[in-house]
Amino acid sequence: MKTMKRSTLVIALVALAVVIAAAVFMTRKPADKAAAAATAGKTKDGAPAPKPALTVTVARPEATELTVTLAANGNVAAWQEAVVGSESNGLKLAEVRVNVGDVVKKGQVLAVFSPETVRADIAQSRASLAEARATAADAAGNAARARTLQATGALSQQQINQYQTTEQTAKARVEAAEAVLAAQEVRGRNTQVLAPDDGVISARTATVGSVVSAGTELFRLIRQGRLEWRAEVTSAELGRISVGTTAFVVSASGAQVRGKVRSIAPTVDPQTRAALVYVDLPNVQQNTGIKAGMFARGDFELGRSSAPTVPQSAIVPRDGFNNVFLLKPDNHVSQLKVQVGRRLNDRIEITSALPEGARVVVQGAGFLNDGDLVRVVDTPAPTPAPAAVPAPAAAAAAK
User: Which positions ≥6 away from 398 have C-beta within 8 Å?
Assistant: First the structure.
């Protein structure tokens, strides 16, 4: 009995020892993990390791070919503006066929005056001409008979001269009557106001029913629909521009038109020391954002040059300055003030000096401060668009 009790006690002690060993092993493993985790979050001297402030992407400045431009301001005006007036005097305006903004062709009827008065004057002139011609025929017959009797002495020389003078006077009256009739016919044709050239009606003062005098302005016409930009360029920059230089004109509404320099003023304004450069703006009928009388800015394209550029999102404006964040070898960033220049799509030129081999923060730059620790990731490649599936194949796949 004593031997069996001792055996049972030994077995119980062994089982207890196994349970305690298993418990110690299970509790020791999480403690080791916690110790490893605690060690990983500390530096060599035991201080907590700093955490990155942001995940960013970086890029190096690239040499990009940019356009060399010269900025200027000026007014948009008509290339030439024609004044269309009345050539008839004292006639009533019966019809107006065009309005402001209408495109007209050379010779097109713009307005019509009442022709009744002119027709009556033409009829009277024709009657006067017929009378003058009859009188001239009678005088010519008398003069002819007098000349046949000159040798016989039946008429004196004085009477013969009177018949000849009467003949010449009658001929002169016929010519005068013909001139009056021609003038009245011209006046009759002037009852129609015609366009002097192709163009666009820019102003209208003609009113139906009004009686106007000769020379009264009825319409204004932008000849050939052409506008021009009169840019003011300083005398110091004038030598960089020549006839044929391309210019891009931008109105206040944002409309952009491409034109070419037609001419350069031969003189400089002594007050402003600037000269006018005339730039032709073609196709103004399609570019409705450009109108005569507008103030517009523009750039003259002088050539091309290579310059360092960075993505526009890398420029951070702060406190009135443009800044970039440069990545250091220890993944900290340093803030640097820069000067910017020309733009091309989403890239911008850096005109100030950058350190050699500089890497500029692009995505996330606007949320950083000087000295922040960052985590750098590669710029994700653009995801290719899925290929288009033909309609029959797509239907089969759906089935």
Answer: none
- Residue 49 is predicted with a pLDDT of 60
Which pair of structure tokens corresponds to residue 391?
């309609």
Q: What pTM was computed for the model?
A: 0.59
pLDDT digits (tens, 9 = 90+) for 221-252: 999 888 999 999 998 888 899 999 999 998 88
Inter-axis angle of helices 116-148 and 157-189, to 10 degrees?
160
Go through the domains of the chain in sequence order and give each one's CATH number.
54-66+306-376 (2.40.420.20), 70-79+225-304 (2.40.30.170), 82-114+191-224 (2.40.50.100), 115-189 (1.10.287.470)
Both structure tokens of 359: 């890497």
CA distance 175 to 186: 16
